[in-house]
Amino acid sequence: MAKPHPSWGLQDPETPASPRTMRTLRKIQSHQVLTTSSALIAQTQSRPSPARPSEYTSTDSPAGTTRTLTHRRARSNSDAAAREAALATAIPTQRRPARKTGSGVGVKRSLLENLLRDGPHNGKVKEGLQELKYLVLSTKVDADGDGMSPYRIYLWLVLLNIPPVPTDDYLTLVHRGGSPAYTKIRNDTFRTLATDPLFKRRVTEASLIRLLNAVAWKLHDSKVKPRSRPTSSRRREMEMLVNTPPSIAEEPSADTAIYVQGMNVLCAPFLYAARSEVEAFALFHYFVTKECPGYIRGALDGVHRGLRLVDRCLEIVEPKLAAYLSSKSLSAELYAFASVLTLSACTPPLPEVLHLWDFLFAYGPHLNILCIVAQLVRIRDTIFQSDSPGRVLRSFPPLEAKGIIAMAVSFVPKIPDDLYEEMIHHAK
């Protein structure tokens, strides 16, 4: 288990600016990094076997290998009777090197896992984060055939700078019962990634309901201010809200909905990758309130802005395709709504979604716009040759995260600065 080293801190002690300002600055810096890295990505695409592990495709990456994993998958960790039993059943039956010892003898770790586990060199968090992001881009997160990684969830927590949430705080929300959005949640959860056997094997509908309902209560409490002194029976709940870490407790805007259709799909990868519901809750609540609050407002204005950005970016990077779709009256509003709202989690397979999200959390979720454009460009010939392009666009082909990421990075230098700024802020 490669838990992040305490020196990551999940806070930047050298930065006195507000969290929102720093998030924006980091995304602009990521734009600059990706712009200068695009040439490297383009070069490594044509290399059959990269010479260095720091290049885009690592020879240690399992993406290009064939593995037969015969292990059994436990139910969601949150629903298992014992965590240790669930972990034991997740170990492949094939021969493996000796288990990790105190000295790490017999264990081969990736550069990414080592950096995450050991912390930034000399305690330099800023430089360490830049190195961590680059390793996500260049070497990929180690995972099995189901997309499961022992350290991915900790990587996400570090990249998004999310502090721990006490388990009791989550349980308090769960024990409150059905939220005002409970009926809407139940109408959606049973069909969440319904055709994905990996998701169904690992995550139960009950855990999905609990998490979405807890987030709905959290959003509801942030919008409704108590008019009177809380009674003793409510005191614990109010103390929990007051004592919640700032990055979790900041209030959303007044028009933020406590649940909108599609949040169930956006929540699904967090539950799949997490080792507990509490980790998934911390990530998902942070994400919908800090990274994309515009996606859960009643009018979904952030999603609609993102769809317009898809059209505008496509006009820049592939004008012929954009003109053809426009002539057929096929705007992104008609075919890319779910892809924008769910950060492409609506397109299987799930292990590729997790790989794509590693990149988005490292360099900014706004880059999902360019990833959607990349998916369109990759099926350009099929669209041109089809008698009914609208039918082609009803469902995108299975995700191939490596190629999509490489193409999206190559688009970054082509996007004007003002348009890129709109991408950064469109989901706020």
TrEMBL record:
Query: Could you tell me which InterPro entries the record lists for this protein?
Result: Rab-GAP-TBC_dom (IPR000195), Rab-GAP_TBC_sf (IPR035969)
GO terms, biological process: negative regulation of septation initiation signaling
Recorded hits in PROSITE patterns, A to Z, give:
TBC_RABGAP
Point to the regions of Low complexity compositional bias. 77-90
Q: What is its main location?
A: cytoplasm
Tell me the ranges covered by the Rab-GAP TBC domain, including all copies. Answer: 146-364
Q: Where is this region: Disordered?
A: 1-105
Q: Which GO terms describe its cellular component?
A: Bfa1-Bub2 complex; mitotic spindle pole body
Q: Which SUPFAM superfamilies match?
A: Ypt/Rab-GAP domain of gyp1p
Instruction: Give GO MF terms, alphabetically.
Output: GTPase activator activity
Q: Where in the cell is it found?
A: Cytoplasm, Cytoskeleton
* Keywords linked to the UniProt accession: Cell cycle, Cytoplasm, Cytoskeleton
Q: Where is the composition biased (Polar residues)?
A: 30-48, 55-68
Similarity remark: Belongs to the BUB2 family.
Name the UniProt record assigns to this protein: Rab-GAP TBC domain-containing protein
